[in-house]
Amino acid sequence: MGWYVYMLRCRDGSLYTGCTTDLVRRVAAHNAGTGAKYTRARRPVALVYAQPCRDHAAALRREAAIKKLSKGQKERLVLDFSPNEEDCP
């Protein structure tokens, strides 16, 4: 079971970052209103970035690093996103 760091684009244009082992289930949970509190009032959300990680600790570190980025840096990450990106460090 692999871990992923992901970003969602919310209805208001904001970005939400999280980590999970099941991207499809997690995005569905956010859109059903049972995901994070932040996304409940900003539905629907769309997956715009996902990066596989080798373990939970790596996913948490990458999530924290992404959350420290500026809005512009996050937008560039989304624009440069390629589904075949390497695992996070």
UniProtKB/TrEMBL annotation:
InterPro entries xref list: GIY-YIG_endonuc (IPR000305), GIY-YIG_endonuc_sf (IPR035901), UPF0213_domain (IPR050190)
Family to which this protein belongs: Belongs to the UPF0213 family.
Domain GIY-YIG residue range list: 1-76
Entries under PROSITE patterns matching the protein: GIY_YIG
Taxonomic source organism: Candidatus Avoscillospira avicola
Protein's name according to its UniProt entry: GIY-YIG nuclease family protein
A UniProt-annotated Pfam family: GIY-YIG
